[in-house]
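Whiteboard transcription, Tuesday session. T.W. wrote the structure tokens on the left side:
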């Protein structure tokens, strides 16, 4: 889902820029003397005008306010001055990029264009000669690759209702055909409409033009040159990498994309992506009518100095401020950058001069980094209500629902931990996970080995609240289970999607006998 809120951090930098410019202090960043292909250099915050003690305070406040951020990485002048990870994400796994993927997808299109594999102004339909396309008219025939990259195709698409068109595409048997067959709402290049299905077409265009999947092409032409090796990129039913989402990277590798842009597409003596594309991608290609405008896969702050971002739902972001040689990278499970910017602004002291060394501040920062990486202290577990004993060990079956849960069972045994058993649509066995009742996640291994955290509590005599956190998979669900007689009524919210959930289940006559556990970490 798009997120076009401009950060007040940029506004603060603007004020600072005016003051520094007035005194003649602003200088162009020095040319790059090293490349972080094999890893980033580290420095202290003070070396780059930040206050380490205030950064420590910002991190602890973020934790205290339960902001659902997973990581915060700040790089200035090519050096890491803050590398923070918030429990339960520890940075050892790649993280879902959500719509940050779009910025990578358009980058690959630019590289293929530079190689002569495709043309930005060629018609979209020319890359699908084998397909019969419905609703084909002159307007659709005039859609170009460039229009798709700037979200101005004119295809019938909406981002409303949690990206309704995207969800329709994802349940269709052929995502590419679904998108190609969309009706036209207006001519291409006229209106900006946030359209993930249109971005997905770029993946198929790239694969049809290069005979390589987007992931294969990215490994060869983008990731390997930048030293990015640990990557996951999921595919649609036909095997095309999802052009709009589902790319997974480490935060340090996300920053490399920003650093490539800071250096105008050049990396260690090689032009990875043309300087012209880099410059055009962060110029206004389409006015959105919102706080930020759009380039080619990048969101553009309307204020000066220049600032642009790759943004994905849930808090995924690569923020680049070229005038200060500054990159800020975040990952999360459902937060907005505006939640942390008031905490970050006071940490910026002087962007033009190195501050004196601050050993005491660095000690505070190291302590804060350790605290935010640890689980919270366990809470006392309240006495279980009678309802917990009534439902313990009982199966509930559900009608079709957004979570694709067919069966569920909870077990309580008067300890600080419960067990949940779930069977999902299409599966033939129950899976079990531990659930912390003391406010602390019980971490298990979820899909593809990614960590999965569950915790819960009884809100009253009938309602059990379950927190189901897929962490690096960017799925964080809070589900209120109300048990009434032989029925279980589920109501909840998926934080990263801002999606409300509601469905019901009925208790079965039989008690579950066995299940297949996911291994606890």
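and on the right, the sequence the group agreed on:
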């Amino acid at each position: 889902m798009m997120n076009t809120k401009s950060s007040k951090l940029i506004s603060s930098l603007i004020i600072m820029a005016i003051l520094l410019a007035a005194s003649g202090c602003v200088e162009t960043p020095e040319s790059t003397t090293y490349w972080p292909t094999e890893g980033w250099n580290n420095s202290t915050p003070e070396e780059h005008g930040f206050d380490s003690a205030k950064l420590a305070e910002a991190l602890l406040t973020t934790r205290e306010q339960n902001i659902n951020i997973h990581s915060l990485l700040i790089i200035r002048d090519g050096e890491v001055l803050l590398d923070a990870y918030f429990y339960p994400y520890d940075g050892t796994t790649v993280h879902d990029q959500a719509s940050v993927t779009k910025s990578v997808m358009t980058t690959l299109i630019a590289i293929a264009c530079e190689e002569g594999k495709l043309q930005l102004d060629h018609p979209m339909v020319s890359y699908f000669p084998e397909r019969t396309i419905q609703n084909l008219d002159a307007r659709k025939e005039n859609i170009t690759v460039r229009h798709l990259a700037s979200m101005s195709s004119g295809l019938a698409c909406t981002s409303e209702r949690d990206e309704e068109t995207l969800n329709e595409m994802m349940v269709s048997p052929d995502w590419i055909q679904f998108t190609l067959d969309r009706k036209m709402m207006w001519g291409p290049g006229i209106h900006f409409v946030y359209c993930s299905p249109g971005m997905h077409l770029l993946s198929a265009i790239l694969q049809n033009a290069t005979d390589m999947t987007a992931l294969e092409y990215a490994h060869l032409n983008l990731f390997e040159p930048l030293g990015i090796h640990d990557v996951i990129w999921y595919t649609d039913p036909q095997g095309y990498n999802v052009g709009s989402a589902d790319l997974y990277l480490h935060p340090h590798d996300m920053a490399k994309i920003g650093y490539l842009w800071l250096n105008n597409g050049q990396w260690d003596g090689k032009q990875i992506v043309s300087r012209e594309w880099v410059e055009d991608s962060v110029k206004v290609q389409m006015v959105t009518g919102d706080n930020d405008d759009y380039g080619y896969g990048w969101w553009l702050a309307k204020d000066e100095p220049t600032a642009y971002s790759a943004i994905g739902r849930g808090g995924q972001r690569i923020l680049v401020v070229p005038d200060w040689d500054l990159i800020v990278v975040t990952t999360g499970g459902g937060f907005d950058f505006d939640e942390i910017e008031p905490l970050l602004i006071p940490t910026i002291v002087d962007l033009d001069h190195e501050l004196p060394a601050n050993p005491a501040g660095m000690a505070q920062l190291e302590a804060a980094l350790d605290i935010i990486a640890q689980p919270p202290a366990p809470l006392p577990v309240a006495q279980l209500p009678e309802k917990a004993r009534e439902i313990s060990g009982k199966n509930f079956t559900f009608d079709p629902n957004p979570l694709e849960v067919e069966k569920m069972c909870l077990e309580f045994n008067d300890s600080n931990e419960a067990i949940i058993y779930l069977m999902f649509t299409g599966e033939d066995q129950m899976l079990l996970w531990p659930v912390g009742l003391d406010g602390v996640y019980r971490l298990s291994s979820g899909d593809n080995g990614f960590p999965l955290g569950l915790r819960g509590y009884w809100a009253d005599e009938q309602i059990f609240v379950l927190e189901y956190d897929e962490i690096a998979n960017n799925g964080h669900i809070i589900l209120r289970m109300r048990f009434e007689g032989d029925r279980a009524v589920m109501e909840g919210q998926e934080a990263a999607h801002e999606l409300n959930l509601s469905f019901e289940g009925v208790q079965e006559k039989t008690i579950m006998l066995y299940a297949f556990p996911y291994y606890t970490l």
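Someone added at the bottom: The chain is about 25% helix and 25% strand.
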